[in-house]
Specification:
The complex is a heterodimer of chains A (about 220) and B (about 190).
Chain A lengths: L2 H17 L10 H23 L5 H4 L3 H24 L10 H23 L10 H22 L6 H23 L5 H26 L4
Helix pairs in contact in A: 2-4, 2-6, 2-7, 4-5, 4-7, 5-8, 6-7, 6-8, 7-8
Chain B lengths: L1 H17 L3 H22 L7 H14 L10 H26 L4 H8 L11 H12 L3 H12 L4 H8 L3 H23 L1
Helix pairs in contact in B: 1-2, 2-3, 2-4, 3-4, 5-9, 6-9, 7-8, 7-9, 8-9
Classes of the chains: A mainly alpha (about 220), B mainly alpha (about 190).
Amino acid sequence: MSAKSKKQTTDNLIQSLSQEDCKVPFVCCPFSATLIFMAVAVPVIVIALHYFGIRPDLLDKMTDWHFVSQVFFGVGTGVTATMAAFALAIPGFSRQIAFIPFVFFILWVATLGYGIWEDYQAGKLEYYHNPICVHHMIKYGLPLAILMIVVMRNFAPINPRTSAALAGLAVSSLCAGSWIIHDNVDPSLVQLVWHLGMVVAFTAVFYVAGRFLLRWR
Amino acid sequence: MAKKDTQSDLRLLMKAAQKGDNTSYAKLLREITPIVRSIVNQRWRGRREMVEDIVQDVLLSVHRARHTYDPRRPFRPWLYAITRYRVVEAVRAFTSKESKEIYSGQDYLETFTDNTANSKEVNLEERDLIEKSLRKLPKKQRDAVRLVKLEGLSMAEAAVKMGMSVSAVKVNAHRAYKSLKTIMAVELK
């Protein structure tokens, strides 16, 4: 086909597209999408915590800065990753937004590292396998991650791998960050290996599957 | 200043289009087409004839993603992001297709015969020569060349038609090109 006839086809395409009903029902906004997602995710996580049981010393722990910062940075990673995932599924947002959750994530790792150091200093450093958090994350995190992916597929995911990885990071961080509220026995080393290990695994799996999950044509 | 004016014009056109104004939408698509074509021309390193296909892909993507544009935000970054994505996807598809195809027999024809053959246009004499040379090839090799090069099928489609694996088609086509090179060199002497 010659260049001229191809340009003719482009004109025909423009004509046919503009003849369709161009009215759109809503305009996507990552902030409102995050709020809506949280309105679904928070009840799911609360139900999960209720099912597994909330730690009995929760009120005492609320004054412990180390515990509070762990929950804050864990859940903060989840919330900021949710917002970044939605923002990256909308054209025009800077990809640098993906760094915000990683700041929270690094601070979360730092609080766990501090906990390990404290345990080590006190001679209480211990480790054991704790696969129940894997069960928790898969049972509650996976449906939330699927929900996020479904929502993002209705946007325009032009960064499929990064968006999917952030979705994985978001739900796994929300689950792991809130899991501390339940778990009153896990030392920091166990949390580092199992909780953060699951977060990294979730993120990696979603990154690898990103192009398949968020294929946008 | 002019760019800023265009930017706000495009934003207003998209805003009107999102509310259902088809005239504004047609105008918007017409105004962004040269912008898109220029970005694609800058970024695309493949065959030039594919530029217009990519431009059309971008227009379709703009149409599908129009609900993601927020009129409070600038229009050009939104458009550039979609265009960049489409060009990257086109490069990926092109590279993947090229890596699966074997070296083109047409290139052999252009470089192994005399100067008159070094033209993109295949005249009737050359066509006769190709046909004559093809008839001298074994059936499987002949079919591979006919389907892939003359009928323009992909390796996978040719494999289905010939009832063999893609690798077998590639091997037959490759052997055919080698044989054609020898046959045509003899014919041209």
